[in-house]
Design brief:
The structure is a homodimer. By secondary structure, chain A is mainly alpha-helical. Chain A contains four helices and three strands, in the order H-E-H-H-E-E-H. Chain A has one domain: Winged helix-like DNA-binding domain superfamily/Winged helix DNA-binding domain (Arc Repressor Mutant, subunit A), CATH 1.10.10.10. The structure holds a DNA duplex. Chains A, B: InterPro entries: Metal_resp_DNA-bind_regulator, Tscrpt_reg_PadR_N, WH-like_DNA-bd_sf, WH_DNA-bd_sf.
DNA sequence: AAGTGATATATCATAAACGGATATAAAGGA
DNA sequence: TCCTTTATATCCGTTTATGATATATCACTT
């Protein structure tokens, strides 16, 4: 049973890291992955990365995995992490849907 | 020309407040609106609310609007705020799409 | 008329999150 | 040999979030 807090809502960097680790990756590869996937829009630096890795390990949402390369540390999202990520995808979907409806309703005020 | 910083990515409370103010509301009504729309899942307290209102005013994403009730202060999202919100909706949509694809791809690993 | 709960705005002070800069070191190429 | 990239890690200042508290008005009950 993991000890960490519940992490009700995931912040953007936490979200991206969990997504990156759906397939096993080491830290540096996470940074590259996020930068590539967002076309350079979103960058995660080492400070943010390793801080969050620690937190996610503690929360049991990711776990370490053996790696042949000795100077690498590879991680992967756990089952709990996948579940949490799915929850968060739904939460964010609802936010997008709400905003979309509100924005579209605004256009036709007088009905 | 507003002075504030660009606010590249919007945090959750900022997002909700901008959505709430697509239709003119006063501070307290924003709190109620967000709590209702999220079925009590997401709550914005006064500290968060008024801190962000100040920042959004400064950034020109919302503006004050006259209100008949003297003890109320009503705000509304500006054109710039609407534009920013639309940007953010797209950004969040892309995040949701990425995660959805990654999660679904994971299921069928061996093709 | 007094009391109570909801309405309404605002700040304080702390906590949590982020992120640039820096450090260290090994690997690969010119 | 030197430089860039890979790779992990922490320091520490800035930003952001938020519970608690304060103040005041309004609506309703007793």
């Amino acid at each position: 049973m993991p000890k960490g807090k519940s992490l009700d809502e995931l912040t953007d960097p936490v979200f991206y890291i969990l997504v990156a680790l759906v397939e096993a990756r080491h830290g540096y590869a996470i940074m590259q992955y996020v930068e590539e996937e967002t076309e350079g829009t979103f960058k995660i630096g080492p400070a943010t990365l390793y801080t969050i890795i620690k937190k996610l390990l503690d929360a049991g949402l990711i776990e370490a995995e053996p790696d042949s390369e000795p100077r690498r540390k590879t991680y992967v999202t756990t089952a709990a992490g996948i579940a949490k990520l799915k929850e968060e995808v739904e939460r964010r979907s609802r936010m997008v849907d709400l905003a979309t409806i509100v924005l579209q309703t605004k256009g036709r005020k007088g009905q």
